[in-house]
Amino acid sequence: MSGGGEAAILSRSCPPRPDSSPRSQSLPALVPPPKTWEQLTHPLKSGEGLKAGQGQTVLTWWILQLPPLRDGPRQEVGPRLCTWHFCRSPNGGAVSLTGKMIPVAEFKQFTEQQPAFKVLKPWWDVLAEYLTVAMLMIGVFGCTLQVTQDKIICLPSHELRENFSEAPCQQLLPRGVSEQMGGLREVSGLKNNLDLQQYSFINQLCYETALHWYAKYFPYLVVIHTLIFMVCTSFWFKFPGTSSKIEHFISILGKCFDSPWTTRALSEVSGENQKGPTTGRATATVEASAGPGKANEGEKEKVLVEPEKVVTEPPAVTLLDKKEGEQAKALFEKVKKFRVHVEEGDILYTMYIRQTVLKVCKFFAILVYNLVYVEKISFLVACRVETSEVTGYASFCCNHTKAHLFSKLAFCYISFVCVYGITCLYTLYWLFHRPLKEYSFRSVREETGMGDIPDVKNDFAFMLHLIDQYDSLYSKRFAVFLSEVSESRLKQLNLNHEWTPEKLRQKLQRNARGRLELALCMLPGLPDTVFELSEVEALRLEAICDITFPPGLSQLVHLQELSLLHSPARLPFSSQIFLRDRLKVIRVKCEELREVPLWVFGLRGLEELHLEGLFPPELARAATLESLRELKQLKVLSLRSNASKVPASVTDVAGHLQRLSLHNDGARLLALNSLKKLAALRELELVACGLERIPHAIFSLGALQELDLKDNRLRSIEEILSFQHCRKLVTLRLWHNQIAYVPEHVRKLRGLEQLYLGHNKLETLPTQLGLCSGLRLLDVSHNGLRSLPPELGLLQSLQHLAVSYNALEALPEELFFCRKLRTLLLGYNHLSQLSPQVGALRALSRLELKGNRLEALPEELGNCVGLKRVGLLVEDTLYEGLPAEVREKMEEE
After folding, report:
1. Residue-wise pLDDT tens digits, 726-758
2. Cβ–Cβ contacts within 10 Å for residue 258, how many?
3. CA torsion, points 877, 879, 880, 885, in degrees to nearest 10?
4. Who's near 71: CB < 8 A, 6+ residues apart?
5. Dihedral sign, CA of 388, 399, 209, 201?
6. What is the pLDDT of residues 363-404, one digit of tens each?
7. Total-model pTM
8. DSSP label at residue 29
9. Which 3 state secondary structure label does DSSP give 344?
10. In terms of DSSP bridges, do strands 94-103 and 585-592 run parallel, antiparallel, or are they unpaired?
11. What is the dihedral of CA 254, 259, 264, 269, to 10 degrees?
12. What is the phi-psi region of residue 55: left when phi exceeds 0, alpha when psi lies from -120 to 50, beta otherwise?
């Protein structure tokens, strides 16, 4: 590239194409590149450029992208600042073109953040980010000019040294410069014998000594301050203690926002708040709240909500598949753990305040020193250097070539800094004029109807405040996963997926009362599909938390029995009306009796009520129980607690109560006078009540037929004589006590049919026991009896005799006169032989002989026609010793 006898050298730092020379390289630029040498040197030849020895000319293009390679894909790059530098030699013979390139993307690392973090950047942070980019461009542009051009041009001054000042510099200004510089005049040249090298030396020396530091380093200061601003703005996104929480929060927030369950929960609430025809507007409401830019989410929500318009029953489970339900369930757990973790501290809030305060302080520092030193950027600079022996001059008048441009850049930079500082001051005002460490979901609760959404605090609250500055819809959808009501609905949906009607029918079985029972244990909730099994007669729920019976309960038309074992349940009024006359039996077991649902005491058709739970220590003595007046048909009342007396409310059902069971778990029952009012009582159980004597109130129960005093501390039963007033008493259970003897008054109980004296400390039985002619069952097992009275042979009605686990060595022959004996339990005694008279017990069907000292069995056992092998409990060796015909007879079906 040469012409007109001028030799030129062209070099460029912007990447060229591999197959082309710099001469033919095209540059897609905002400013078209020169095509000919004349165009390139036109500014120099026309006098608009520099004269020989005066300096350089700079042309700048913003290169948007590189040209495509010949044999490869197009390579995209970011914006680059390319500087073209022209130089002409002192004699005007040679012009050189050099280039430098500064990639702007190199500064990206100072502000690079994850795109998702934008939701935590309020509008003032976004504005500050754009301002820092503008300030950074000012600094980069100034640095580019500072690096690529001579900074100062000096001419010698002819004034004497003692008279030298900046004033003579005014006379050296060429014509055409700003009129503000004063009057201009032509100055004739003076031969100074200085070559270009000497001028370059003087220029550099004056630049270092005479030019003010602010004028020299202003662009670099701009870049440094701007980078500090960038670091302060994004430091909390990079600091390990805060970035981990932010990343976790953003991750959970995005999943909560996009979760189908969020849309489902909000639409269900909208449907509940807008009954009837207004349900169809739920979709429009959700879409409207999404706002601009949320069209895609709105379409998804519409697809999920629209099917609810055409159904009259609760939303179908098909709206949310099982996988989505499990994902939503995992989100609930994540939100719970994250809330506990973040609410413990306020490091995010503190870090944001610190970096904001730091920016404000730096803003004031920058503003002050820039306003003070900006006037130091001067077009003319007086320079005095001791070089007269070399150059002949000691005073010089210098021209700072870029002072005018730098002063404009400085004022522009100060303007941006002022706007940036105002945003920082507003941030401080926002931080301190309201409690950002507390966040209330009151508006969300009112809008969605989820009244259990809790308020949050500390860092959790602060991040939600920032989210509201971006889009309040995020916090609304996030709140769905803070609601226990929403979580319970999700669990309900997952339960319905897991427990289908077919699976529930496989669990149906008959209970002890012959009712078709469905038993569910340790489930997170009650599946709605349960109410599709209309054939269920008994429902047993154990360890199921927070049960709320839906209106679908009315489908269980055959339900008669309900058991709630550690399963608190709420019953709507409509369901109470349904169960009020249908339910016959209910069992409630809980930690404390005050947890028993109140609706239980309003079931007027109830026949059996079984309650199990403790009274609180302050209420144990009073033993206050809810009124039973509504239970007009109650016949059986069972109470297992720690009461100190019989609850007074028991007398509310005295007229029709037939069976009362009090199990006190060892706590002493002191007051039993209320029992006297139970005139219709037939069965009474006082189990583990700490009784030491038989209560006298019992003897007033004329209709009493069965009495059970199991697991008490009875030592003496002298009061047994008073039982003759209970003329209908047929069963007396005094087992599991500490009774040492039976008084002779037992003979007065001629109507007694069953007597249980097992697990006591009896060593002998009274002979008068044989006078209880109506006795059909006698249990004296687990005692210390060494012999039985022969008078037992008088019990001709005896059918069951249990004397196991005693110390009997022989049996009286009179015992075998009890021809009606069907069960004879003699196991684990000291018997050495069994009388052949046993063959007289033809009705015997069960005989226990294990654990004795028998050597052989009498063959007369073959005469017991009702005794079979399964009913004979004896060692195999003894059984094998029986004659073969006897064994064959016993083994016959």
Report:
1. 889 999 999 999 999 999 989 888 889 999 999
2. 12
3. 170
4. none
5. negative
6. 999 999 889 988 888 888 888 887 776 666 788 888 888 888
7. 0.60
8. B
9. coil
10. unpaired
11. -30
12. left
